[in-house]
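INTERNAL AUDIT FORM
Audit reference: QA-55
Scope: verify that the stored structure record matches its stored sequence.
Auditor: D.O.
Record contents follow.
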Amino acid sequence: MATLSVGEPQEMEVDRRGESEESGDDETKRKSFNGEVDSLQAPSTVPEESPVDMDTITLDPDEEDVDLVHCRIGKIEGLEVLKKAKTISLRQNLIKCIENLESLGSLKELDLYDNQIRKLENLQALTELEQLDVSFNILRKIEGLDCLTKLKKLFLLHNKISGIANLDQLTGLQMLELGSNRIRVIENLDSLASLDSLFLGTNKITQLQNLDGLHNLTVLSIQSNRITKLEGLQNLLNLRELYLSHNGIEVIEGLENNKKLTTLDIAANRIKKIENISHLTDLKEFWHCMFIQNESRLLLPVAKQSTLI
């Protein structure tokens, strides 16, 4: 068994370990990785900007990777010439509606990050799509994805989604990012047997449940929720990274079957004792926060980062 060496107590801070870093511009990803900024901070779209028409933008018919980032585009149109396009990035624009994509049947990746989209719609022609990013928009529900049966990565970070639904046809999905929404219950994931990474941080989830069918899951991040008990993970035999910081967990338990864990983050919970991890012989990173009683018998947090060697 690896030995545990505990570092000196340090000031508590909100970290974003375990969040997907594939959704977001390179600068935001770099800064969120080294802790300089909050990776969930809303991008700097300026709502006062006036949209421009697509006919003012020159498109290259031979281009396979189309970059239309921050062009103040107000409406998706005129993309019919992009017959060879494999990836299209329309992030940080002023788009309100997903439309006029019927001619892009060969598209592999579509990026609509940081727009003003209220509904997932008009995607049925994109049957070859493997990656879709509609993060930082105004979506309230998951819908309109039934035809995207080849989708591998779906990013819906920072919207107003209240429930997990309508994913049954996405049986090849490998990554699902639903962080910073309004989700209260983990549900309707049974058909996602290929799922490798699930991100549900900064929601309103109270219980770890309905994860039994995710046998291939290796990364699970449910930071900054309302979970009070470590449970429901017994069937996740391939789990390697588990991020549960900033919840209300009091006891480390329920990890008997998760012997492949290499990273365990339970910082900023209400745990008083480190226990029930001696069987985790592959553990390399262990983030925790011990609570101690002061003279007034109040529980006070002491943050610690442990290195397992």
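Auditor finding: record pair retrieved intact. The first strand starts at residue 4 and ends at 6.
Action required: none
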